[in-house]
Amino acid sequence: MTTNIDQPFNREVQYAAKRLAVIRSAAGAFRRRGYHNTSMVLIAKSLGLSKAALYYYVKSKEEILYECHIMVYGAMDEAVKSVRGQGENGLEKLKLLYGAFAALMTRDGLALLADVDSLKGEFQATVLARRGKIERAVTRIVEGGMKDGSIKKSDPKVTVFFFMGALNWLNVWYEPGGRLSGEMIADAFVEQMSVGVAS
Amino acid sequence: MTTNIDQPFNREVQYAAKRLAVIRSAAGAFRRRGYHNTSMVLIAKSLGLSKAALYYYVKSKEEILYECHIMVYGAMDEAVKSVRGQGENGLEKLKLLYGAFAALMTRDGLALLADVDSLKGEFQATVLARRGKIERAVTRIVEGGMKDGSIKKSDPKVTVFFFMGALNWLNVWYEPGGRLSGEMIADAFVEQMSVGVAS
DNA sequence: AACTTATTCGACCTGAAAGTCAATCTCTAG
DNA sequence: CTAGAGATTGACTTTCAGGTCGAATAAGTT
């Protein structure tokens, strides 16, 4: 991966790195305190900047939220891609994917934000589209598993929403560095999910 | 149950009924749009009132959110109480309880709000305490099931958070009157949860 | 009818947080 | 070394939603 350190004199790279730092830092604050309980001043201060400087990197607070969402869905798209062709059947494939999702949340500090309603117009439409795309990808895998007999037959949508909900709820209670390690949680989630849906 | 219609001339009863209507209406709006995306003017309008009139029934917007939380946890406490002594083992007891929880969400229109961070001081402390109480009650049942052999042994907290997350996520996607009926969802959730945790 | 109390409202106040901008500091290319 | 682009800031404006208040209306009581 290319980091800012690789090209300390390339201003575009530096700019992109700093912009990313803003998004990341905000994402963490949004996850902990919620979007509306996090002011731009707070985001700025946590980076040692003034609020005005933030607007050198982003157009608006809403844009930050948008980028937070896109970042997660981008990583999820990657995870979906990475299980293509993997796994002997639908269930195995689903376990791999769900494990990857759980790792994103616990290891990479990403978080499914629920604040879609705070986005307007194009922003919201795009995020909803991306979310729909992921949901469909997961649902397709589940349906595949139902066909090949590895996953118990029932309404695929309800099945998917059940275990995706657990993922979202992670944001609320999981604290890195706590008693429960990320790997432990991810493993337990995969286990509980897979047993719940298996034939 | 006592309704406002029972005592149309009792002012205290009328007042309480109207106050409840405010809370309920707000709860629905909070669930759909989120707390911060719902203005007091909007809540008022949806009841055919002016904003000022709202403040005759509640002290602040935060109090409404608080009451929304309390309403849900109250109903959950009832559900916990109603399964006391029921069920042959931990798993059966858990299925009853979880089914009751799911019914609260789908049938009674209640919703676990995630916006705990928008509450301050005493309000937040109380809500967190109530949530903790429910979590402990559920965890105790799970631990009981692990002891009597009906539930697979693993970390109880992770186990509980997994299926409680699914419940919370319901708020985001479930729309009454849609393709999926409330009963259907509740049944599917109980099934998927119980298979996931059973020995 | 007169009086009291409950309920509702329009108009206003206020504070917090998003967003802007001209001025300033800091790099680095030449 | 210095000019000019890049980066950052303090101070300001703007907007909007929560909350207040006194007046007006409705309802109930005697």
Architecture overview:
The structure is a homodimer of 199-residue chains. Chain A is mainly α. Chain A folds into 2 domains: 1-58, Orthogonal Bundle (Arc Repressor Mutant, subunit A); 60-197, Tetracycline Repressor, domain 2 (Orthogonal Bundle). In chain A, 69% of the residues lie in helices and 0% in strands. In chain A, helix 1 packs across helix 4 and helix 5 packs antiparallel against helix 8 (182-197). The longest helix of chain A is centred in the C-terminal third of the chain and has 28 residues, at 121-148. Chain A starts with 10 loop residues before the first helix and ends with a helix. The model of chain A has no long low-confidence stretch (mean pLDDT 93). The structure holds a DNA duplex (30 and 30 nucleotides).
Brief summary of the model shown:
Chain A is mainly α. Chain A has eight helices and no strands. In chain A, helix 1 (11-33) crosses helix 4 (61-82), helix 4 (61-82) runs parallel beside helix 6 (121-148) and helix 5 packs antiparallel against helix 6 (121-148).
